[in-house]
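C-ALPHA CELLS:
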Amino acid sequence: LDRVGRALRVGGALLASFKYGAGEVVRDGRLFNSYDEGAFQALVAGHPLLAIASLWTTQDARPSRAGERWLNVLATRSR
C-alpha cells in the first residue's frame, strides 16, 4: 500500500475489492487476501498517505457463488 499511495496523485483514488473475511490463502500458486471492515481499516492506518473514503459490501453476482460477499474499498491519497 505504500507504493500505491506514492503512485497516486494527491486526491487520486484507489478502488479495490476483497473477498469478505479474514486471512490469506494460496490457491493454484495465487495469493488471495480477505478483509472485513475492521481489518482493512487497521491495515490502512499504517499507511498515512491513504485515507478511506468509503467501505461497502456486495454479494457475488455469479450464480455459482451466491453466498459469497465482497468488501469494496474506495481510498484516496490524502497528502
